Amino acid sequence: MAFFDDYKPFRNHLRKFPLLPSLVEIWRLSLDLLYDRPLPPDYLTGRPALAHGPLNKYLYPWDLDILSRELLLNASTNGTRTLKKWSDLANTINYIRRLEDVAFTTGHDPQADVLRDLHRIAHRQWPWQIDAGAAPLMRALKVFGTEAVDRLVVQTLGMTIKQAILLGSAVSGSFLNNSGMSINQDYGVLGIPRDASIALLSRLTSTTSDLRREIVAQQRYDQDWAYGQNPLEKRPLISVDPSFPDRVLCPMPWWLMRRLSGGIFYDLVSLAEFSNPFGESFQDYVGDIIKLTCKPPRFTILPEEPYFVGQRKMHGVDWTVSDHTGHLFVEAKAKRLTVGSKVRSETAPLDRDLNIMAMAIVQHYQNIRRSLDRQTSWKPDGLPIYPLILTLEDWFFISPRVNEMLTAHIGTLLAKADVPASIVESMPYIIASAQEFEIISQLISQIGINPILSRCIEPDRQSWALLPIVRGFFKDELKNADGFLFRAEFMQLWQNIYANHQ
Questions:
Q1: How is 393-444 classified by DSSP, letter by letter?
Q2: Comparing 221 with 2, which gets the higher pLDDT?
Q3: What are the pLDDT digits (tens) for 75-84?
């Protein structure tokens, strides 16, 4: 309980804050950090001259994640402190930073775990920095929008994925201007029945008492304290008045938009009939990227081609893209890291997920070997081959410790499959997210497969994310790449709604 001894002063400090006004203040601070909405003049009062510059020099969105969770757990109905006041805000954030340091050194040797913790830090911080704008919405619309998957969305949520994203955009947009609203509103102009919108928004709503009970049940007072789940991620709306349960507060609109786009995955993942259609849908989406960016005749695109090994039917490589410089063999994997793999200090959950990733990589190598052995219609021509594993959600393979764990699993599985371990050296695999591939494919379309991907497999960069690599080598080409690849489709979605209601 050594950590809890350090935690108690922070708990007592938060008891001096009134809960609902503090959550409204978090809402306003989040708009400044995430949407560049300047704070009103009554915020940051008493700020010293030395603490000048934008707020994001001192405060980060993940700080507000922890703070909102801890306020829900510890704040009082009434209180005298306020996050509008610089000293109260600064003292509170300093408490959090000190507790993060204490938690890291609790129960283990920090020197032994610093490389492992890079993985947890990335999953805690990076989504706030890269998962913004409309691109994730369009990605979700395409991946959840196939007939087989959308049928499950309707079955579970009472509306299509298009309706859910339109509703999320409208409601999140409202919360950019107001901290509260009623969920009993009519979104018929978006083609959404009122009872359906109320039902879905109610699904995303909790009371402060329910949220507090959930936090108490899962709170950790050890090295995982800073990485505890915030129930607002799953249910980002708070019913604030028992007399009017339809009136809700949204402390972090960013959570709401995430929840009604990619977060729909967690509503469906437990359905037995979800996995296969979702995997096929993601594979189709990867194909949409390739077809939009790597067009013939300069590029040759081959979709999945089943083949047989004896009596066994093999599904083959998902997508093969070729040009005069090389070949890109693409395997699309919709599998996500489990929550425990992202944030827990114990390695068992992560180890299980890494083994699944290693199985996908080894299977990909087996398919490539059989292609090289002319068991498929693709024919080798001596040009370099790049095995690419694409994930829907970024796994953030930046930690050397995590890469070592993955490498160990791959080595074991290659041996079991009777595949030479040297294949990893002769054709190094690349793991990238869909978001990265939307950019990388546009660079490939400009200068070719080999010039881009040869940079990504250089030994001193194999644990890097792809975008920092290409930013260093292909600045001019990046200027021609659109960070929102399916922009035209997204704009057409809204134009159709506007046209239908003229």
A1: S------HHHHHHHHHHHHHHHHHTT--TTHHHHS--EEEEHHHHHHHHHHH
A2: 221
A3: 999 999 999 9
**Tally of domains in the chain:** 3
Task: Note whether residue 501 is domain-resident.
Answer: no
Q: How far apart are CA 235 and CA 158, in angstroms?
A: 17
Q: Is the pLDDT of residue 112 over 60?
A: no
Q: Round to whole Å and give the CA distance between 196 and 143.
A: 22
**Which of 298, 321, 292, 302 has the alpha carbon at shortest distance from 447?**
298
SS3 247: strand
Residue 309: predicted pLDDT: 86
- What pLDDT was estimated at residue 429? 96
Instruction: Note whether 148 and 67 are same-domain residues.
Output: no
Share of the chain above pLDDT 70, in %: 96
In a domain? residue 115 = no
Distances (CA, A) of 148 to 143, 155, 260, 451: 11, 11, 19, 38
Q: Which of 81-95, 176-190, 465-479 has the lowest mean pLDDT?
A: 465-479
> Has this prediction a pTM greater than 0.85?
yes
Are 247 and 286 contained in the same domain?
no
Give tens-digit pLDDT for 172-183.
999 999 999 999
Residues 262 and 347 in one domain: no
Q: Which amino acid is at 263?
A: G
222-226-229-231 Cα dihedral, nearest 10 degrees: 120
Helices (DSSP H) in 232-293: which residue ranges? 253-259, 265-268, 275-293
User: Quick check: is 304 in a domain?
Assistant: yes
Q: Specify whether the CB–CB gap between 427 and 368 falls below 8 A.
A: yes
Whether residue 494 is contained in a domain is answered as no
Q: State residue 1's pLDDT score.
A: 59
Given a contact cutoff of 8 angstroms between Cβ atoms, the answer to whether 141 and 288 are in contact is no
